[in-house]
Amino acid sequence: MALLQISEPGMSAAPHQHKLAVGIDLGTTNSLVATVRSAMSTVLQDDHGHALLPSVVRYAPDGSVIVGHEAQAQQSADPTNTIISVKRFMGRSINDITDRAHIPYKFVSTNEDQAAKVLQIETRAGRKSPVEISAEILKSLKSRAEKSLGGELVGAVITVPAYFDDAQRQATKDAARLAGLNVLRLLNEPTAAAVAYGLDNAAEGNFVIYDLGGGTFDVSILHLSKGVFEVLATNGDSALGGDDFDHRIYCWVLDKVREVTANLAPLTEGDTRLLLTKARQAKEWLTENFEAQVLCRLSNGILVDVTLSADQFVEITQHLVTKTMSPTRKAMRDANLTIEDITGVVMVGGATRMPHVRHAVEEYFQQEPLTNLDPDKVVALGAAIQANVLAGNKNDEDLLLLDVTPLSLGLETMGGLVEKVIHRNSTLPIARAQEFTTYKDGQTAMSIHVVQGERELVSDCRSLAQFVLRGIPPMAAGAARIRVTFTVDADGLLSVSAREQSTGVEARIEVKPSYGLTEDEITTMLKASFSSAEEDKKSRMLAEARVSAGAIISSVTAALAADGSLISEAEQNAIRTEVERLQTIAAADDATAINQAVDALNHATEAFAAARMNASVSHALSGKAINSLEM
Amino acid sequence: MSNAQNDYFHLFTLPEQFDIDTKLLEANFRKIQSASHPDRFVSAAASDKLASMQLATLSNEAYSTLKNAARRAKYLLEKHGIDAVADTNTALPMDFLMQQMEWREQLEDAKAAKDIPAMDKLLSQLRSEAKVLERELTGLFDNKKDYATATEVTRKLIFIDKVCSDIQQAIEYLD
Lengths: 631, 175
Description:
- The structure holds 2 protein chains of 2 kinds.
- By secondary structure, chain A is α+β, with helices and mostly antiparallel strands.
- Chain A has 14 helices and 27 strands.
- Chain B is an all-alpha fold.
- Helices cover 75% and strands 0% of the residues of chain B.
- Chain B has helices spanning 3-6, 8-11, 22-36, 46-67, 69-79, 94-112, 116-144, 147-174.
- Chain B is globular and about 55 Å long.
- Chains A and B meet through helix 7, helix 9, strand 19, strand 22 and helix 11 of A and helix 3, helix 4 and helix 8 of B.
């Protein structure tokens, strides 16, 4: 490998050059970054040899942003400006946060009318959204990776809890973009763990991934066969994790203190943080010990000194363990499998170190869970393997991940009921259409409300988007045919479109549910983060446009040479004309014109691309070698 | 995309009949996904990404349709110009309707008693009932080519599927 890699930003590297791609586990408590080096997936460490980066962000008085261990050390001293477990707030509104009393932040809504919309946290650096705070964690991991790997990253696979809904996924993707990362894929955490585990052990059969993290619980059931990881079912609870066990200990300690101190004054935010930290330490200590002492002095001078036994800990948290078993049974039912069908159970997430969690899983599945990979690292390791494949470093025909959508997607119908359009556990990508009609004569508009969840009532599901389809030609009630199409891509992200089609008049609207940030907000934030001069930005944009023009010209030219015969001579010539046009425009200095010509060429090659895809599939089925389609 | 490729049976190189080789269906599904999944085209041109998304989506839809007996039967009937669930297609024998009401009553009783084992039992009873209908459909579709009777049996199978999913939902709410 070359000692120095000098390349144009965003330029696709030479075929034999190793592209720098990473897997990032953006966790509630800790985050990690991993990469594949010399065919081995490895977690990257910081300068002090730490692999885990505490997911803690502090806005310091001097205006700097501190992430990780140093921020964590300050959390009791500066609780309102030191944000922990921000993942719990991703894609959430103030109304979603039920235990606000226990969280020492000043929550605000972006807009007073929008209490149901995105929340923000008031800090000394101004109002910060969970997306911005998460982006700080990702930036820190990005710079760790670039320092360690010695170059700019081509892209990253970011993991999310399988049970994250659309809002939470979109927020995560926005955070990654804000951190300047090219997101190759959002990957479900249990699936990532299965990849790391399955490839390591050459496993075949049905596997359960039981993933109890700091703030989220996922259970996925996968069928592993010859490098294909097919998710059969997934379930979980996106608000249940190790944090809740800490909180139980915290409450128990306070009760004990009250028994001896009649008038315990209200706790300061710093006291709350201190006690929660002590609670977490006690929990971790109890993994290998019979009792844990919680000893600290509160700000008002009261000494806290209580001892929690392992049995008492089990007693006060058993209900949380029980709470994980209902999603587990649901996933088993959805996968249509019985306990005997399960080859292995893999434990993921730091919280699965608790003995009573392991015991409950072992009892249900009648087999000892597998713990031979570090539960804190397995997700990042699997994400790195997938990132390596997606970046094109390994033309691994054998690794394929087939994931599912965790929650059903539907539309509001009459009476506040939900009509499901895509059912949970459908394999991605998926597109489904449903037809609706008007209920009044001459009706020209229709309101469309998109929801996610399993319940029958709209009010029990999460509202994703609401839009109005206008321009329906006036006709008798029931005569219009409005086709609403849901598309969920391989990242698990939804887009919805609607059109009236009985009259041939097309009224069409396309929405991406927006609870994270708008496209404009992201662009503005990204621009603000570039300190470079206007002139530099222009030349960078031009360079990037030329790079993408060069890339598409060479790929289309190669495709025409290899598979041109799939389409007619006339069609080939039409594409060649567009290629020449782009070549001419790319020689000039107008970035916008180049990008438009790239789009035009892409559009002109759609039918050709589809023909090549069909040919490629036919080859795959007839056992012949794949043609030159994959580049 | 050519029309032939849009045909689910053709896509998986399976003969157009009710009784299919599920192992071959699975194997070919994986081959198609291996060649067309969006993960293979992460840094490809936009037109290749679009083609990948379309074919991967089609094969997922086709796979889930052919894998499930009721949906496969309904799809086969559509190929013969019959809409099994059309409002005009309401004919079902009285004894089946009675039977169906009985199942519904059993489900309601079990729901009221919050009796999950009773629901599980009903579920497995319905599943074996479905197996009988599936065998019947093989004869009707593949041997006798009797699409009128096949429509009736398919409707029964769809009803049973619906009751099964209602039972599952009831179990889920209780669990």
